[in-house]
Amino acid sequence: MAAHLTALVVLPSGLWRIALVLGHPAGYTEAGFEPFTTVEAKVWMLTLSVVCELAALLTIGLVRPWGEVVPRWIPLLGGRRVRPLAAVVPAAVGAAVLTLIWANVPWWWTYPHEDMTATGNLVVGILYQPLFLWGPLTAAVTFSYYRRHRPVRPG
Length: 155
Description:
The protein has one domain. The chain is elongated. The protein has helices at 2-21, 30-33, 39-58, 84-101, 118-128, 134-149. By secondary structure, it is an all-alpha fold. It is built from 6 helices and no strands. The longest helix has 20 residues, at 2-21. Keywords: Membrane, Transmembrane, Transmembrane helix.
């Protein structure tokens, strides 16, 4: 369940960024929204949204068969068993990095956001709050994967 929840906690912020890409100010003042109207900004926000969601979806691999055996359709590696540390190490590093990146999100409202409307500041803060859970959920799923796949010690 935690693996699936991981994909869901990333979704609200991604949908908000997609609204910006589609031209909706999504809580910004007119002047604050201006930097988001360039092609470069739109490509960045769309790419960020897709990459974040795909990264979150990778967590599901820690609870599904494709986290144990590489899917056959993947060239050169398909059908091979996944070495547990090949999944655990990147997932643990990712969990630690995500925890650090999103650690300050609960204090969103204590930071100034002059480029946003009061309602926008409230809504965006709410949409970003779930990201605080991304790292810890990934860590929990990673630890569970490790426990299920660790070598059995004799004795």
